[in-house]
Write a structure and sequence with these properties.
By secondary structure, the chain is an alpha/beta fold. It has a single domain, classed as pyruvate-formate lyase- activating enzyme, CATH 3.80.30.30. The protein is about 35% helix and about 20% strand. It has an eight-stranded mixed beta sheet, with helices on both faces. Strand 10, helix 8 and strand 11 form a beta-alpha-beta unit. Helix 10 packs parallel to helix 11.
Length: about 375
């Protein structure tokens, strides 16, 4: 087992999920790890919640179950700020990494790592969804409620998803990760509408706040290998965090990034500053008492989340936008995640009227739908 790969302490398989092909694949790829067939996971969840740190304890276990509802949903974004019309596939839920700022600590009611194995339903739902939206290009990905590649050595999702989307001319599909789990991707022929993306931060923040994640240098090296294989890549500086020396910290990473990645192969870079609902602050204080990131100048935003004062956000973004544009020659599409139109206009020189315009802007480098 690669020390950088996640493997659970134990696998729980709901009885009615036992006979799925993906279940058999997972069992094959986790030989030697104990498993247990259960009727329902509800009692298990309650037991884990009694532990000292339920979020940490839950990450030790993998739950195999079925998605009872819709796999494909619109990204919730945040009220009163500009969205990007992104769609998410909820195939895996939760993440084995343990970032101090992660909103999943607050959002998820089940602390276990979850894999939904009824993928036949997923393909059928995607067929319907893409047909209904066939007249324009969609951006869709899997990295909203879990890391897209953290379990890929176990599930091999990347193979199935890339094979599915490579022929879909009205879809741009993104796999988003903090890992270096790219073995399966390097074995698959790339396609123009497939984007492999990495979440990046300064080395200090990655080291202190992104527990169990590979170093930023290793992530950029993984991106370099994927880009050399022929894929488009993308990057997400989110959350950008202010700390003493942040300017030098982010400059170091951006210089490293453009020293190794061809700007013409970067589909987009998103920027977002630290933000969190009030309840998450309490969770972070309890789980990560050593962190200082929540003790800064925050204001309650229009979406009910704490975020830096606008002047601070402007300062952070202006520096990082300048660094990216200078290194990338102004050729890399940039966008904000959950920001106001005012900052779009001042810093990116564009002001989308809504999420559909952002979608169109980010889709321009890709082929138009062909029917």
């Amino acid at each position: 087992m690669n020390k950088k790969e996640y493997f659970p302490k134990k696998i729980f398989i709901e009885k009615d999920s036992l006979d799925y092909p993906l279940t058999r694949k997972i069992i094959k790829n986790t030989q030697g790890i104990p498993s247990e067939i259960i009727e329902s996971h509800q009692d298990l969840i309650e037991e884990i919640k009694l532990s000292e740190d339920p979020e940490k304890e839950g990450k030790k276990y993998l739950l195999i179950t079925q998605q009872k509802g819709e796999f494909v949903k619109s990204c919730p974004c945040t009220p009163n700020y500009i969205g990007c019309n992104y769609f998410i596939i909820n195939l895996d839920i939760n993440c084995p990494l343990d970032c101090s700022y992660c909103i999943l600590q607050h959002y998820l009611s089940n602390p276990m790592i979850i894999v939904h194995v009824n993928t036949k339903d997923l393909w059928e739902q995607l067929d319907t969804f893409l047909y209904r939206n066939r007249k324009h290009i969609l951006r869709i990905g899997t990295g909203e409620l879990g890391d897209s590649l953290a379990l890929d050595h176990i599930t091999e999702h990347s193979k199935d998803l890339i094979y599915y989307f490579r022929g879909r001319k009205n879809a741009i599909f993104e796999l988003k990760t903090k890992t270096v789990n790219i073995k399966n991707i390097l074995e698959i022929e790339p396609a123009d509408n497939i984007v492999i993306a990495w979440s990046l931060n300064s080395n200090k923040i990655a080291c202190e706040e992104e527990k169990n994640a590979p170093s930023v240098k290793d992530r950029i090296e993984a991106a370099r290998q994927v880009e050399k294989r022929g894929y488009r890549v993308a990057f997400h500086f989110d959350p950008i965090i202010r700390y003493p020396g942040w300017e030098e910290g982010y400059a170091e990473v951006i210089n490293e990034l453009f020293g190794r990645i061809n700007p013409l192969k970067i589909a987009w870079i998103s920027l977002g500053s630290l933000r969190f609902p009030p309840d998450l602050k309490t969770i972070i204080k309890e789980r990560f008492p050593e962190t200082r990131i929540i003790y800064d100048e925050f204001i309650l935003g229009k979406d009910g989340k704490f975020r830096y004062f606008k002047a601070i956000r402007f300062q952070l973004y202006r520096k990082i936008v300048s660094l990216i544009n200078r290194n990338g020659g102004g050729r890399v599409p940039l966008y904000f995640c959950m920001e106001s139109g005012e900052l779009w206009e001042k810093l990116l020189m564009i002001k989308p009227k809504g999420k559909e315009e952002v979608e169109k802007y980010l889709s321009l480098p890709f082929d138009k739908p062909k029917y």
